[in-house]
Design goal:
The chain is α+β, with helices and mostly antiparallel strands and 320 residues long. The chain has ten helices and seven strands. Among the domains are: 68 residues; 148 residues, Heat Shock Protein 90 (2-Layer Sandwich).
């Protein structure tokens, strides 16, 4: 286009300049020469483009989609870099999805194996006392059923967290009611293991979703019960500061080793104590931490080996 426009400008100037106008023969010669040069240029451009298209077709046929030919211009080089970067991002996203799928499968497999234990224990107990069930047998079966229910609930919350935004209602909730519901849910374990419970100063209301916050507290109390020895103690208290209300669950268990403390929120991480506990899946604190983030809360864990563990949920205060 530029070549044709330049030729038109030259001819136009020649026609306007009546004094220095070229002879018709010279004008014809210039036109023929220009057309010949233009044809050579177009032919060379055609050969170049055909060669480039051939290389691209060869890439497609060979399956080497990122084996680009050497760029012939800065624009081609930029296009190649853009395609390469998009490809790398796509591969990274696929790898992340694959990793998430593997972790989900690992969790589900661990959960299935965990559910086998209470089911087998319940069957064994029923076979043993089929003819003369007593109170102890019934309590043992109820405890195993509670374990199954807890495992099922954990899986349900794990699956639902991906659709969290579709199922939550933020409202003012009394801390005392959340704690009471959770302790009642675990009352049979408290009694069976003779673990004492105390609560202090829970007269606060926090902005949260009752159901999801209740699940978080269930995980903290369940964890505390899991590692607190028989005859131990678990306490719950709340403290207020200008910016937040902190609910803390404290147990008298073995505590968490310093090298494990920074990883307690990792998916499927059980740590030294978890490896000693066959029923541990390493998902309770992971789910609790994940849900706290979605609710704009903060979950922290402090521990001293041999002295117990403090797990705290930080509820942010909002001014009117």
């Amino acid at each position: 286009m530029f070549y044709a426009a330049l030729l038109i400008v030259i001819l136009g100037l020649n026609w306007l300049d009546r004094v220095n106008r070229m002879l018709p023969a010279n004008t014809a010669y210039m036109l023929v020469l220009s057309f010949c040069l233009g044809a050579v240029y177009l032919l060379a451009l055609y050969v170049h483009e055909r060669r480039g298209v051939g290389k691209l077709n060869h890439m497609i046929e060979s399956g080497k989609l990122l084996d680009f030919p050497s760029p012939d211009s800065v624009r081609e080089e930029l296009y190649q870099r853009i395609i390469g970067e998009q490809t790398r991002r796509g591969e990274s996203a696929v790898e992340s999805l694959e990793e998430a799928r593997r972790e989900e499968m690992a969790f589900l497999l661990a959960w299935v194996h965990r559910m086998k234990t209470p089911i087998a224990a319940a069957r064994l107990q029923m076979e043993r006392d089929r003819l003369s069930p007593d109170k102890k047998t019934i309590e043992s079966l109820e405890e195993e059923i509670d374990r199954i229910a807890e495992g099922v609930e954990k899986v349900l919350y794990y699956v639902r967290q991906s659709d969290f935004t579709e199922d939550y209602v933020i409202e003012e909730v009394p801390l005392s009611s959340i704690v009471t519901d959770s302790v009642k849910k675990h009352s049979r374990i408290f009694i069976g293991r003779r673990v004492s419970f105390s609560q202090d100063d829970l007269a606060y209301r926090v902005l949260t979703d009752r159901k999801w916050a209740g699940f978080v507290l269930d995980q903290l109390i369940s964890n505390a019960l899991k590692y607190t020895p028989e005859g131990g103690r678990i306490s719950v208290k709340a403290e207020e500061s200008p910016r937040e209300i902190v609910l803390t669950v404290t147990d008298t268990g073995p505590g968490i080793r310093p090298e494990d403390l920074t990883r307690v929120f990792n998916r499927s991480f059980t740590g030294f104590n978890g490896r000693m506990e066959a029923a541990s899946t390493g998902m309770g604190l992971y789910l609790a931490h994940s849900l706290c983030e979605k609710l704009s809360h903060k979950l922290t864990v402090e521990s001293v080996p041999g002295e117990g563990t403090h797990a705290s949920v930080h509820f942010q205060k909002y001014s009117d």
